[in-house]
Amino acid sequence: MNEFFLTLILWSMTTLQLTHANQTPVLAYKAKFTGSNYAKTRYPLVFVHGFGLGFNRIGIDSMGLDYWYQIPQDLARNGATAFAAELSAMASNELRGEQLLMQVTKVLAISGAETESA
C-alpha cells in the first residue's frame, strides 16, 4: 500500500513538472503612470527567483506576499522595462534552465531587444 502511494505521489509530481515546463509564464510589469526616467534601461530586466517555491506573489494585489518587495513595479514606474520569470519550484536544474531560456526568449520578443554578439 505504501508503494502505491509513493508511486502515485512521484507520478503526480512528474506530471505537474512536465505540465509546467510547457507553460512559460513571464510577468511583465507595466506602470500606470511614469514617475521619472531615472531607471530607464537599454535592455529589459528579468527577475528570477531562487528556490523560493516558484512564486512572484502569493495572495491578491491588495493583500499578499510579494517576492520582489515591489522593486520591479518601482523600476517600471521610473522607466525600466521589467519582467519576472516563474520557474517550477522543485524541478531539476535542467528543467528550470529550459523554462528560463523560453521565458528570456519571450522577453526578447516582447521587448524587441536584441542580444549583442561578443
- The topology string of helices and strands comes to HEEEEHEH
Structural class: alpha+beta
Our count of helices gives 3
DSSP strand (E) fraction?
5-15%
* N-to-C CA distance: 57 Å
Quantity of strands, as a count: 5
Q: Which sheet architecture does the biggest sheet show? A: 3 strands, mixed
* Residue windows where pLDDT falls under 50 for at least 5 positions: 17-21
Mean pLDDT: 79
User: Outline, from the CA principal axes?
Assistant: flat
What spatial order of strands do you see in the largest sheet?
1-5-2
* Rg value: 17 Å
Fraction of residues in H or I helices: 25-40%
How would you characterize the overall build of this protein?
With 118 residues, the protein is of the alpha+beta class. 40% of the residues lie in helices and 14% in strands. A hairpin with a 4-residue loop joins strand 3 (57-59) and strand 4.
List the topology elements.
Elements (H helix, E strand, L loop, with lengths): L1 H21 L3 E4 L15 E3 L9 E3 L4 E3 L4 H7 L4 E4 L7 H19 L7
Parallel strand pairs: 2-5
Antiparallel strand pairs: 1-5, 3-4
